[in-house]
Give the backbone structure.
Amino acid sequence: MVVERVVLAARPEGSAGLEHFRLEQVDRPAPAEGEVLVEVSHLSLDPYMRGRMSDAKSYAEPVAVGAVMTGQGVGRVLESRTEGFAEGDLVTGRTGWQSHAVLPATELRKIDPSLPPSSALGVLGMPGFTGWVGLNKYGRPKTGETLVVAAATGPVGAMVGQLAKRAGMRTVAIAGGAEKCRIAQETFGFDSAIDHRAFDNVKDLRAAIAAAAPDGVDVYFENVGGDVLRAVLPLLNTHARVPVIGTIAWYEGASNDGPDTLPALWRQVLVKRLSIQGLIIFDHWNDFPAFLDMLKGGYLGKQVVAL
Amino acid sequence: MVVERVVLAARPEGSAGLEHFRLEQVDRPAPAEGEVLVEVSHLSLDPYMRGRMSDAKSYAEPVAVGAVMTGQGVGRVLESRTEGFAEGDLVTGRTGWQSHAVLPATELRKIDPSLPPSSALGVLGMPGFTGWVGLNKYGRPKTGETLVVAAATGPVGAMVGQLAKRAGMRTVAIAGGAEKCRIAQETFGFDSAIDHRAFDNVKDLRAAIAAAAPDGVDVYFENVGGDVLRAVLPLLNTHARVPVIGTIAWYEGASNDGPDTLPALWRQVLVKRLSIQGLIIFDHWNDFPAFLDMLKGGYLGKQVVAL
């Protein structure tokens, strides 16, 4: 009766690789009163995890070297020592990267067994919820306006694109590779999709986005930073909104090579009266039930596709 | 019967100087039906005017070379061809830099003759209104929080500081020179004042601000950009708000010398969930009557000092 688990073996500089992790076996723990033992079937792999591998000051504590890598998971209850959960229940919680986890009942949530279990980690979980909050609270979509989102086939981008389309926006996907671009349009209904890998400089990428957004960009849903940000900035319209939920392009280190582009950004903020708003989803969990209700209220499997 | 007027003679590169303007005399125009002839007694000199001297794309058209320099003024009605105004009325409007102006009645506003006429161009005019809108709509002051504003003895900064103080905030002024710092504290009631000229590098300026804001900065009311922005950024608290109403430090050209500081800003936006909002006051004129009402309702000459 062992637990297989992945621990952080060393802090990566630059790209994270297998050498920064270690597979361990330990004895399976027993749940105490009020706790639940879960057999984990699905693990999430999210961009924010790169931040947890680093000890740079951030909004959350880093994972300690030698500790189980953090992350959301889905699994079945093997043993419950609380009334709210029973053996066999399908649940989600912050299990970490391991085969079995003991968690307090207060940190677990039952999920609908009629849906794909992985959806609780994607479009129906933290990433989808982040897209919903960011778009509605800070993106403020309006009919006839144009939205651009990168990583458009990820669960955040896919959710944002579908909600924006439903709100009457023109939607422009940015994704890496022809296959993802095809999925963005065919599965998620983006009006157009741009393969950023097809461009080796910001100017050409910008021209492609401009062609797909002939009326300019009203909402740039920011999850990548880097060249996509640089390409989009001059295309923003007056009163454009920029929810910032991630900067994936810079998670493994950002180049500070000049020129300094902050003054140009700041001028855009003023002249175009931009609204830029950072978002970390744990400020918004109170709204999660409303999000699930919204999806149940006719979206799921219709307007919103859960991969 | 002539009009003396200042026209833009050439577009400045870098600092604007006398050589970019020319004094002219022209015949005094007569008002047409619906227009008013004003003898101008007070002219405003505002940072935004540097933008009008440039033909870089912005939110407003540049002043044409050879045209009267734009700007708000105060004066008395010499001749009225409309019912709403009579000879002798004290008015304000976009007169431009000239001794006399003919304006449509719809573009003039009568002002209270019991107040200093220049106040209509300062704390009771566009700048004061900008401070009020920026602080209340986008700064969202809260008791016990800390505000930092530069150019603190200007009409925007002075208004912002006084309103923030009244809202229960700790207020930190940044100004140029000991005399302005004294005025910021003694006249406008800032809790502390920092002379940015006393520092020749961002790090030391930052240390001085940090000492005056021991709990960090919750509202950075941005009107300067440049080194003050760079100094304040790392001091911003989680959920800090940054209304951006001007970037004076960069109006005569910003250095793009590296390193590129945009990635660091963007990380702060995300990690601290910053709210950055650009503001151009002409989007908000509908609220101007409420602003004047607020000042009349007991503020003027009590909490709010109009220089």
Observations:
- The first helix of chain A runs from residue 48 to 52.
